[in-house]
Amino acid sequence: MKIKKVVCSAGKTGFFFDDQKAIKAGAKNDGNFYVGEPMTPGFTSVRQMGESISVMFILEDGQIAYGDCAAVQYSGAGGRDPLFLAENFIPVIEKEIAPKYEGLEITNFRDMADIVDKMVSPSTGKVYHTAIRYGVTQACLDAVAKSQNKLMAEVIAAEYGTQVSDTMIPIFTQSGDDRYMNADKMIMKAAAVLPHALFNHVEDKTGVNGEKLEAYVEWLRDRILEKKPREDYNPIFHIDVYGTLGLVFNNDFKRIAEYITGLAKKAQPFHLRIEGPVDMGEKQAQIEALATIRRYMEEMGTDAEIVADEWCNTFEDVVDFTKAKAGHMAQIKTPDLGGINNSIEAVLYCREHGMGAYLGGTCNETNRSAEVGAHVAMATQPKQYLAKPGMGVDEGYMIVFNEMSRILALRKAGL
User: Fold this and answer.
1) How far apart are CA 353 and CA 84, in angstroms?
2) Smallest Cα–Cα separation from 84: which of 371, 374, 338?
3) CA distances for 293 relative to 167, 257, 276, angstroms
4) Are the CB atoms for 344 and 335 separated by under 8 Å?
């Protein structure tokens, strides 16, 4: 079967693009807006609506395979590709990428993904924007699945030598700043991993001695014990602190390890993961810091874990953090890796080399990219998969839960 035509449509995402540089420089909230001037090229305001592009492959038999191009909330920051606007990138896809796929015989996912993921743009001399590679490779996977009458998860499993999970992958829900009301939603839905909680400011959120984070962990523990939806509900606490523990403890790694060890005791009987305890400002220093904190934690005998996020953006970064044991788990932030083939390989690399794999992403994705990601999760079996898009809990959780549930039901039915 061949791809007859490639069609693009402009879309919206489940959240926003935020100018991280302007926010760090002092832009203030005004309701859901930010007051201040944008500082990152491409932004027309500090916060603006998220945009996506649906890439649709029209197949010879009339079926339509598609994926969504999307980029992270903080686009253009930390070495990432620039702001992803549909009007700028639809012409690129139509002029440079579509001709490579139109008329192409559908073969296997890996070869078809490599076309866009490794291709150099004739207009820029560089590989394509991560968002383009992300969406086009989703469409490639869907096209192969439709041509073979298989689920996308089954295509991945066959090509990468894995097994599709026969149980749900634990879903990690994120609260945004509404960390109390949204935690209630997570508890009610029996989310397996919660709440992210967005502790990204020392004075307002974490506390100058970490006391506000401690109080929140105690509240969350007590709230679950009081409201748990069933007796065997035993979620993992996963809290992102955005490097604020480094600020609280002046990057004293032993003190940070001691604090996390104490925090884990407050979380009991629930297991604790802390994402991004420090942000050292560059990759090698970050690797050394997380590796050191992990060693101290192991010496202290705690079962708490730390999660790598900042400066761990690409497949190569995931490999480097894993080799150095820089953390117990790595977030594989799917849009930042470009083609979903890279996310697949990153999860498998982590699993093979003793690093916890967290198949993540961003609140600024779409329902389609979240659904395709659910197939990646079921086929590669990371420790957890992010509920996305959005920050409202209900919508993202519904999308990824329902897609994984459909996979399980169809396979059980032998279809």
Assistant:
1) 34
2) 338
3) 33, 6, 11
4) no
What token pair was written down for 237? Answer: 């606490």
Q: Does residue 99 have a cis peptide bond before it, meaning omega lies within 30 degrees of 0? A: no
**Using one digit for the tens of pLDDT, what is the confidence trace for 240-288?**
999 999 999 999 999 999 999 999 999 999 999 999 999 999 999 999 9
Which is the catalytic residue, given 185, 333, 383, 388? 333
d(Cα 209, Cα 249) in Å, to the nearest integer?
Answer: 8
Where b means 16+ CB within 10 Å and e means fewer, 210-239 reads bebbbebbeebbeebeeeeeeeeeebbbbb
- CA 113-118-124 angle, 5° bins: 130
CB 175 within 8 A of CB 223: no
Q: pTM value?
A: 0.97
333 is catalytic: yes
- Residue 361, classified by CB atoms within 10 Å of its CB into exposed (0-12), middle (13-18) or buried (19+), is buried
Query: Token match 């990759």: residue?
Result: 283
